[in-house]
Amino acid sequence: MSTDSTVKFKLHEVVKRFRAWGDFVEGAPYGSGHINDTFRVSFNMAGAPVHYLLQRINHNIFKNPRAVMENIIRVTDHLRSRLSAAGMADVTRHSLCVVLTRGDAQPCYQDGDGNWWRMYLFIEGAHTYDTLENDKQAFAAARAYAQFQNRLADLPSPRLHETIPNFHNTPIRLQTLQKAIKEDLCNRAKEASEEIAFVEKRVSLCGRLLDRHAKGEIPERITHNDTKINNVMLDDVTGEGVCVIDLDTVMPGLALYDFGDMVRTATAAAAEDERDLSKVRMRLELFKAIAGGYLSEARFLNPAEREELAFSARLITQMIGMRFLTDYLQGDTYFKIKRPGHNLDRCRTQFKMVASMESQQDEMEKVVAEAWQK
Ligand code: ADP
Ligand code: GN1
Ligand code: MG
Questions:
Q1: Backbone angles phi, psi at 116, to 5 degrees
Q2: Last residue of a domain, one of 63, 93, 124
Q3: Rounded to the nearest whole angstrom, what is the distance from the C-alpha of residue 184 to the centroid of ligand 2?
C-alpha cells in the first residue's frame, strides 16, 4: 500500500537496513500512538507472509535515540532470560524483540534526513485496545504490567538512562503549565479558563508522591512510565496479556504512576478524546479488575505505596490532563493532533475522569484494601 507517509519516508529503502528476512511487499501506518510513527511492514519470506513493526522514533521528544535503544535492549534481553528460565515456550511473543541493522548490528538506524528508525518482530495473534470492553481484559492487562515490573526488579546495574528527564515529575509539569498560561503564546488561555481553574484548585496535590519519595517512604523502581492500556497486547484467543510494548520510557520511576496510568486508561468509559463529556466516567467495576490483576502479582509494594494506589490514579490523570493543556496552550507541538482543539478535548476528558475518581475515592480505597487481602 502506498500512503503519503510510506512514500515520504521511503519505507522500501529503510527496511533494507534491517535484518528482516524475505522480499519487502508493502508498509502501512499502524496503531494510534501519540508520539512515534509506526508502520506494519509486510514481507514475503520464501512464500510465507511475515510482518515486522517499523517505527520512526520521535527524536524531538526522545533526544537521545541511542540511549533509548540501549535501555530497550537491556530490558528486553533481561525479560527474555527471565521468561526462558521460567520455562515459557514462546518467549519471542512475550517480550519485544529488536531486529538489528545489517552490517554493523545496531538496534536503530539514522537515515540521510536525520530520522531514527527501529524494527521489532511483529507479534501475531494479539492486539492492543484503546478502550477496554470488559473486566477480564482489565485484569489481564494489569497483571501483565505487574509481571513486567516484577521481572525487571533484578535488572543488573547500571541504572537505566532517563530517556525523558522529569517525565513524571508533577510539580515540574505544573510549573511548565503555569509558564504556558502566563506566556499564552497562541492566545488560547481564554478558551481554557475552566480547565486552568480546575488545576489551580488542585495545586497542593501535585507534590504528594514525590514528597513521600523524598522522605524515603516510596522507593524508586524500574517502571514502564507509559502504561496506557494500548501499550499491552492481549491474546486474540485467550484474552491473556501477551506482551508489554512501547518501551521508550522504561526507566527508574514510581510503581504508583504505572498503576495510576492503567487506571486512567482502562477504567475510562469513553475515548481519551471524547467530546461528549457525559460519556466520560471512571468505571468502578473496571477499577476492581485493574486492582485485582495488578495486586495478584505486585506483592512487592510497601505499605506507603499501597496507601497511595487509589490516589495515584487521580494524580497521573490530572498530570496528563495538565500536559495536554500545556500542549494546547503552546500550539500543539508535542502530541500528534487530528483536529483543532484536539489537545483541549483530551484535557477535558482527563479532568472529567479526575472528578469522577474524586467522587468515588472511598469506594476505590475499599477496592484496593480488598484486592490486597486476597
Ligand atoms: P507509540 O509510542 O506511538 O504509542 P507504540 O510502540 O505503542 O507507539 O506502537 C503503536 C501501536 O503499534 C501499538 O499500540 C500496537 O498496537 C502496535 N505495536 C507496537 N509494537 C508491536 C509489535 N511488536 N507487534 C505488533 N504490534 C505492535
Ligand atoms: C503518549 O506514546 P503513547 O501514545 O503511548 C505519551 C504518554 C501519555 C499518553 C497520553 C512519551 O503515549 O506520556 O500519557 O500519550 N508518551 C510520551 O495518551 O510522552
Ligand atoms: Mg503506545
A1: -105, 130
A2: 124
A3: 23
**Domain termination site, one of 100, 124, 148:** 124
Q: Give the C-alpha separation, 181 to 25, whole Å.
A: 48
pLDDT tens digits, residue range 286-311?
999 999 999 999 999 999 999 999 99
Burial label for 94, CB within 10 Å (0-12, 13-18, 19+), is buried
Contact 77, 62 (CB under 8 A): no
193 falls within a domain: yes
Kindly give the distance from the C-alpha atom of residue 230 to the centroid of ligand 3, in angstroms, as a whole number.
6
Q: pLDDT tens-digit profile of 241-267? A: 999 999 999 999 999 999 999 999 999
Which residues are bridge partners to 48 per DSSP?
45
The pLDDT, as a whole number, for residue 8 is 74
pTM check: above 0.90: yes
Evaluate whether 219 touches 301 at the Cβ level (below 8 Å). no
Q: What are the CA-CA distances from residue 207 to residues 36, 162, 171, 190 (Å)?
A: 29, 20, 6, 27
CB of 120 within 6 A of ligand 1: the answer is: yes
* C-alpha cell at position 96: 519485544
